[in-house]
From TrEMBL:
SUPFAM superfamilies: NAD(P)-binding Rossmann-fold domains. This is NAD(P)H-binding. It comes from the Bacteria. InterPro entries: NAD(P)-bd_dom_sf (IPR036291).
């Protein structure tokens, strides 16, 4: 099975890549990024590409994929909607245009196309467009994500929050299972979807954790 991962250098993408490389059913992983990957593995091909609005030049490397994981994302803090939209919406739609197979879009708890909040509105609009495609598409909406296995967020404030709240995770998972998952559980759930697991089209953290086993 061949899986293409966008955003493999981010926290969620790192988790997805790790689980892809660990799963024996995945024999080929292609990551797409603006700089070479620090990860090396016999199963891994890293494609360096700068313009995510046009993936046509690297389409041959992405061909014949069984699944595509779109994990790219930026914080909306300090950004206008026009600035936030390309990574969250435009590049995701372009990835769906070029890469075949099962498509998994990493959204977030609270995404809603009618929201007054920029990130929720843009993610919700993107979800709706992708789910309308005539192909297998799943949206994962994690809430609080615990980074594991040395994985860290590239955003400083998120690193602080995750570090400070790590001791709360067991309690949070008990009292709010629909809002808490981890990088490895999220990654395993995405691989399960690529392998054909039966699930709702939109998955919250409790369903993500169930698929992860």
């Amino acid at each position: 099975m061949k899986i293409v991962v966008f955003g493999a250098s981010g926290m969620v993408g790192q988790g997805a890549l790790r689980e892809c490389l660990l799963d024996p059913a995945v024999d080929s992983v292609v990551t797409v990024g603006r700089s070479p990957s620090a990860v090396a593995d016999p199963k891994l091909l890293h494609v360096v590409h700068a313009d995510f609005a046009d993936l046509s030049p690297v389409a041959s490397d992405l061909a014949d994929a069984d699944a595509c994981f779109y994990c790219m994302g930026v914080t909306s803090a300090g950004l206008t909607e026009a600035e936030y939209t390309p990574v969250t919406h435009d590049y995701a739609v372009e990835a769906a245009r070029v890469v075949g197979g099962t498509y998994v879009y990493v959204s977030g708890e609270g995404a809603d196309a009618e929201s007054k909040t920029i990130w929720a509105r843009v993610k919700g609009r993107t979800e709706n467009e992708l789910l309308a495609l005539d192909r297998p598409v799943f949206v994962v909406r994690p809430g609080f994500i615990q980074p594991r296995h040395g994985i860290t967020s590239r955003t400083r404030i998120y690193r602080y929050i995750y570090s400070w709240s790590s001791w709360l995770m067991p309690l949070l998972k008990k009292v709010a299972p629909k809002f808490v998952t981890s990088t490895d559980e999220l990654g395993r759930a995405m691989v399960a979807l690529a392998k054909g697991a039966q699930a709702a089209k939109v998955l919250r953290s409790d369903e993500i954790n169930r698929l992860a086993g």
